[in-house]
Amino acid sequence: MSANSIPTYPLQAAGITGSGQYQEVVSPFTGEAIARVEQAHAGAVEAGLAQAVNAAKKIMGPMPSHRRAEILEGLSAQMDQRREELAQTIAQEGGKPLKDARVEVGRAINTVRLSAHAATELDGEQQAMGGTAGNETK
């Protein structure tokens, strides 16, 4: 894959700029560059952490549980729509068999769905993960 044909991912965070320097993501299976990712500079890391703390206190803290659940359901739907793309990415980046990557994506989607459900029933109990396909031994 030529450097011009691989996906390039700039740092994307509200009000934060990247360093302009890119790191290649290399497949451990083939040694081939499969993507380029913009690196953060120290100031971007600090700004991102500050944004996360602010969001936790001012946005997520007062957000009603039903809205959190809606957000998580929306995320799980987006992941499901892009299921094969996610599996291909996992297989390329991790050098793992595509069959296993597909199972991993399914588990991730199930985890987000379970989290959406749990968001409306926060009572301090643990959520058993063995109740969904792919998690039998968890």
Outline the structure in words.
There is one protein chain. The protein is mainly alpha-helical and 138 residues long. The chain folds into two domains: 1-62, no CATH class; 64-138, no CATH class. It is built from four helices and three strands; from the N terminus they run βββαααα. Helix 3 packs across helix 4 (98-119). The chain starts with 7 loop residues before the first strand and ends in a 19-residue tail after the last helix.
Keywords:
138 residues; mainly alpha; three-stranded mixed beta sheet; 3 strands; 51% helix
* Count of beta strands: 3
**Order of strands across the main sheet:** 1-3-2
3D shape:
flat
The end-to-end distance, rounded to whole angstroms, is 38 Å
Percent of sequence in beta strands:
5-15%
Written as H for each helix and E for each strand, in order along the chain, the element string is EEEHHHH
Please compute the radius of gyration using only Cα atoms: 18 Å
Q: What is the domain tally?
A: 2
Give the overall average pLDDT. 88
- Structural class by secondary-structure content: mainly alpha
Set down the secondary structure blueprint.
Layout lengths: L7 E2 L12 E5 L6 E6 L3 H19 L4 H17 L1 H12 L3 H22 L19
Give a brief rundown of this model:
The chain has 138 residues and is mainly alpha-helical.
